[in-house]
């Protein structure tokens, strides 16, 4: 029995106040992965003692035990909802010419998608985002699954420019909570968010905003879980004929964003390079 089922089972025997707290827990299960007892007390307008009594009533010895149960539930939901996939085109294995034609079609589709991106990209939003990157004290690059490659690439480029950048693997609840506990208003959190969207991302973004950090999301749609909490939003297409997410256009977007960071540095750019640094790296 998972934590949500446990709460449902215990619900009829809870007090009115406990039922209100339980309702919050069931409606926001991923929040419990990242918040403290004091924060939950504030969000549910309850005393810490009331929350600890509820933990006991649900069968948990401490708030930490309850929190771990929600972490286990969230990680299971991530496995179910955030798994990657690809599409297998219907081409007979022995038909070489059909395979070649399909690859040519993909080339044409990639070219069209690239042309559409460069003809419609919001350069002003890129400029605003790049300038905010320069203003921020630290940049936390948050990603999961294939998007981790984008985050690691961005981290390498920003470090080359002397900007403090830290990669956060969202699949690690410990890393994510550690980041959230550090955040302040001088920091920026950059989320890479593509389908299938990371299940707890909305909660993570909401927590970042509650700590007054600036949020930038690079995503494929305004429906992305972190989009509603973003100060800056950069959009690009990722789906292709074969792969659920292609990195071609996101990489093009990143190159534009990081190029403007360099442009905005102007004469400060060479001074940002480490000793022996190569501007062409």
Helix content: 40-55%
Strand portion: 5-15%
Derived from helix and strand composition plus strand pairing, the structural class reads alpha/beta
Largest sheet: 5 strands, parallel
**Stretches where pLDDT falls below 50 for ≥5 residues?**
275-281
Which series of helices and strands comes N to C?
HHHHHHHEHEHEHEEHH
Gyration radius, to the nearest Å? Answer: 22 Å
Distance between the termini: 52 Å
**Rounded mean pLDDT score:** 87
Number of strands: 5
Strand order in the largest sheet: 2-1-3-4-5
Quickly count the helices.
12
Shape: flat
Task: Report on the architecture of this protein.
There is one protein chain. With 281 residues, the chain is α/β, with parallel strands linked by helices. The chain has a 5-stranded parallel β-sheet with strand order 2-1-3-4-5, sandwiched between helices.
Structural topology:
Layout: H1 3-10, H2 16-27, H3 37-43, H4 48-57, H5 63-81, H6 96-120, H7 123-135, E1 138-143, H8 148-160, E2 165-169, H9 173-182, E3 187-193, H10 201-210, E4 214-219, E5 232-235, H11 248-265, H12 269-272
Parallel strand pairs: 1-2, 1-3, 3-4, 4-5
Helix pairs in contact: 7-11, 8-11
Question: How would you summarize this macromolecular structure in one to three sentences?
Answer:
The protein has 281 residues and is of the alpha/beta class. 53% of the residues lie in helices and 10% in strands. Helix 8 (148-160) links the parallel strand 1 (138-143) and strand 2 (165-169).
């Amino acid at each position: 029995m998972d934590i949500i089922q446990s709460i449902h089972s215990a619900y009829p025997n809870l007090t009115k106040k406990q039922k209100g707290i339980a309702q919050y827990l069931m409606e926001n299960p991923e929040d419990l992965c990242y918040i403290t007892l004091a924060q939950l007390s504030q969000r549910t307008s309850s005393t810490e003692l009331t929350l600890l009594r509820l933990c006991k009533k649900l069968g948990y010895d401490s708030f930490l035990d309850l929190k771990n149960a929600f972490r286990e539930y969230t990680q299971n939901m991530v496995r179910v909802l955030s798994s990657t996939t690809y599409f297998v085109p219907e081409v007979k294995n022995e038909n070489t010419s059909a395979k070649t034609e399909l690859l040519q079609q993909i080339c044409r589709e990639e070219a069209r998608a690239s042309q559409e991106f460069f003809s419609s990209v919001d350069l002003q939003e890129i400029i605003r985002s790049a300038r905010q990157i320069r203003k921020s004290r630290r940049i936390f690059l948050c990603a999961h699954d294939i998007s981790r490659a984008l985050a690691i690439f961005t981290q390498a480029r920003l470090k080359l420019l002397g900007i403090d950048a830290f990669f956060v693997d969202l699949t690690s609840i410990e890393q994510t909570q550690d980041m959230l506990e550090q955040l302040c208003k001088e920091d920026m959190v950059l989320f890479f968010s593509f389908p299938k969207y990371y299940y707890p991302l909305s909660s993570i973004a909401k927590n970042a905003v509650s700590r007054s950090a600036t949020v930038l999301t690079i995503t494929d749609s305004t429906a992305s879980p972190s989009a509603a909490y973003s100060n800056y939003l950069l959009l690009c297409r990722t789906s292709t004929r074969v792969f659920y997410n292609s990195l071609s256009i996101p990489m093009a977007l990143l190159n534009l964003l990081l190029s403007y960071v360099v442009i905005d540095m102007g004469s400060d750019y060479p001074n940002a390079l480490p000793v022996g640094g190569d501007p062409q790296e």
